[in-house]
Amino acid sequence: MSTQSPRHTAEGHDPPPVGGILWAVAGELRSVLALPAAMTMQVAHPAVGAGVDQHSVFRTDPWGRGERSLRSVQLWVYGGARAETEGHRLRRLHASIQGVDAHGRPYRALDPPVYAWVHATGYPVYLRAQRYLGTRPFTAAEERQLYGEWLRIGRVLGIDEREIPGSVEEFWPYYRAMVRERLEPTVVARELAEPDAAVPPPDAPPVRLLWPLLRPLFTRFRAFLTVGLMPPDAREAIGLEWTPGQERRLRWFGRAARVVVPLLPERLRYLPIAREARRHARAGRP
User: Fold this and answer.
1) Torsion 176-177-180-185 (CA) sign
2) Where is the ER-bound oxygenase mpaB/mpaB'/Rubber oxygenase catalytic domain (predicted)?
3) What are the pLDDT digits (tens) for 249-273?
4) Which pLDDT does position 143 carry in this prediction?
5) Per-residue confidence at 13, pLDDT binned at 50, 70, 90?
6) Which of 9, 82, 171, 255 has CA 20 to 30 A from 182's CA?
7) Residues facing residue 270 across a β-bridge
8) CB-hemisphere CA count at 13 Å for 216?
9) Cβ atoms within 10 A of the Cβ of 46, count?
């Protein structure tokens, strides 16, 4: 694989605009529900899957890893100047991650095509989550705007612009080729989509006590949303089943989410970093 440095790094690039589409949706509960689908698509790439399998604590500390991942995503969108700092941190964190994948091929986490794929998965999953959980699907203009904002995040993260398409029209052929040629049912992808996955309890005494009863409910719900909110072609490439009955249940769940989530108070509807940024924006503070 290529080991070239990215053509653009985080310096001088701005996060998505206040009031943009990502500003509205990225920190909201419904978008958070879609993140496992994107993560599973990421680790279905054999290089990403090998890196997570060999270097991540997702099996022993899934709650801590999940919290750190959510914080990182929130900083990209709502962090202002902190977004650039977070981009540098992520590159430092991944700089030493390398090894050999399940096919005996060497990989590096920061190989430009690999790093770009990890970022690219968010866009189709945001579209699909909006279709099922949002008030309405995005218009074509909104899809273009969202993609433009996603590219801005890529620049903040130091994604090589030669590796990620510059327009929606170019994105979909790239995406379909990646799904067709690169994705496979890696060990980690299968684990993340497993309804009966062995997930340790969170570090919260009441939940820990009840975890033997709660774990099957949690893992089945996570698997349901992971597979359901994944684009069908990616789902097929990973070998994940999805029945008509599951599709009906997802649509019913989406209808309920469209009614309930907008009624929640902001402290429950948005994650903390998003809440703080929204409050500052209303007050006219940076």
Assistant:
1) negative
2) 23-258
3) 999 999 999 999 999 999 999 999 9
4) 96
5) low
6) 9
7) 28
8) 2
9) 20
6: amino acid identity, one letter: P
The two structure tokens encoding residue 2: 């290529």
Q: Which two tokens stand for residue 94?
A: 């991944």
- DSSP string covering the chain: ---PPPSS-STT---SPTTSHHHHHTTBHHHHHHHHHHHHHHHTSHHHHHHHHHH--TTT-HHHHHHHHHHHHHHHHH-THHHHHHHHHHHHHHTT-EEE-TTS-EEETT-HHHHHHHHHTHHHHHHHHHHHHSSSPPPHHHHHHHHHHHHHHHHHHT--TTTS-SSHHHHHHHHHHHHHHT----HHHHHHT-TT---PPPS-HHHHHHHHHHHHHHHHHHHHHHHHTS-HHHHHHHT----HHHHHHHHHHHHHHHHHGGGS-HHHHB-HHHHHHHHHHHTT--
User: Comparing C-alpha atoms, which of 181, 180, 144 is closest to residue 165?
Assistant: 144
Strand partners, 98: 108
Which residue has 């989509």 as its token pair?
193
Closest CA to 164 of 144, 143, 146, 150: 150
Q: Which neighbouring-strand residues pair with 106? A: 100
Q: 254 vs 8, which has greater pLDDT?
A: 254
Q: How far apart are alpha carbons 165 and 147 in whole angstroms? A: 10
Distances (CA, A) of 240 to 88, 127, 177: 35, 20, 19
d(CA 129, CA 254): 9
The strand pair at 98-100 and 106-108 is best described as antiparallel
Which residues are CB-contacts of 178 (< 8 A; sequence separation ≥ 6)? Answer: 45, 117, 120
Dist. CA 197–CA 220, nearest whole Å: 8
